Amino acid sequence: MTILSINVTRRSAYRLISLEGELDRLTQPSLAERLDEALSDLRPPAVVVDVTRLSFCDSSGLRALAQARDRAVAADGWLRLVGVNGPLALLLHVTGLIELLPTHDDVDQALRGVAAPPGPGRASGEDTATHRPAPPGV
């Protein structure tokens, strides 16, 4: 059985969505619903998604995150990821979504819009148009 815990924390300037467990085709609809709620709470939308405790993510999970990011940007807002590492970092690079989904080490860094430095098994997305190549071997 696939389990995904989704915790939404409402702050005055942003929404923090913390994920724990597996994000796949069975749990993606719940995340999409929570993302929609978070995106409609603030104008412009500002959403930080903490994936530190996410143990698995498939293409349907990536699609939900990318679509939410697109909706945020269309409303002059943003969606940023925190705690990306391991297989999710590799998946973001392989799919090219690292260019669309900025990654950060922690919430404070995400709020400042400062991208996480590249490192082994970590994503290196950023908010600027500057392109960073994928790590060697990806």
TrEMBL record:
Q: What residues does the STAS domain cover?
A: 4-114
Q: Which domain of life is it from?
A: Bacteria
Region: Disordered, residue numbers? 113-138
Listed GO MF terms: anti-sigma factor antagonist activity
Q: Which family does it belong to?
A: Belongs to the anti-sigma-factor antagonist family.
Enumerate the Pfam families for this protein.
STAS
Which PROSITE patterns does this UniProt record tie to the protein?
Answer: STAS (PS50801)
**Cross-referenced InterPro entries:** Anti-sigma_ant, STAS_dom, STAS_dom_sf
Q: What name does the UniProt record give this protein? A: Anti-sigma factor antagonist
